[in-house]
Amino acid sequence: MARAGLTTNRLTRAGAELADEVGFDGVTVSALARRFDVKVASLYSHVKNSQDLRTRIALLALEELADRGAAALAGRAGKDALAAFANVYRDYAREHPGRYAAAQLRLDPEAAAASAGSRHAQMTRAILRGYDLTEPDQTHAVRLLGSVFHGYVSLEAGGAFSHSTPGTQESWERTLDALDALLRNWPAT
């Protein structure tokens, strides 16, 4: 019989909190069982194994990011939309480093289809409509933006910019200015 109060949703949220505290790599069913002061076996009626738990955390993180992104984009276009969307990723990574790492998990095709990943791509493409890009340039631009956002956030989180000037906020703003300029002047093939 499952321990009262334990649900898949509650375990997923607790796993996400654990990821933010100890890092996504430190999230296991055993670590979660210790958090709830229960035996590991009592969690297996809610999650299959550590990989299942990690996948559920990734899906939660992608959903949270998509919800924040949608809220940030409402009523915005062009550079304003680009900056708002980029800031969602950066802010989320700072507030929830473990969940942000989870959002990078490579999902199996079934989980990927159920994820909010397609919402992220749709929002990015909505931003790009303000720059009048057509295919295949839109796909190239989606990949570019994802790479720049993730690369900057990951380097910043790893402390790569911590001992240099100008400050990271100024560099972030200049990076967004540069992306806007590039998207407005996308090179012809």
Automatic annotation (TrEMBL):
Q: Where is the HTH tetR-type domain?
A: 5-65
Q: Which residue spans does the record list as DNA-binding?
A: 28-47
Q: Which domain of life is it from?
A: Bacteria
> Sorted alphabetically, which Pfam families does this protein's record hold?
TetR_C_33 (PF13305), TetR_N (PF00440)
Is Transcription found in the keyword set? yes
Keyword annotations for this protein, in alphabetical order, are: DNA-binding, Transcription, Transcription regulation
**InterPro entries attached here?**
Homeodomain-like_sf, HTH_TetR, MT1864/Rv1816-like_C, Tet_transcr_reg_TetR-rel_C_sf
Where is the secretion signal located? none
Task: State if GTP-binding is listed as a keyword.
Answer: no
Protein name, per record: WHG domain-containing protein
Organism of derivation: Streptomyces gossypii
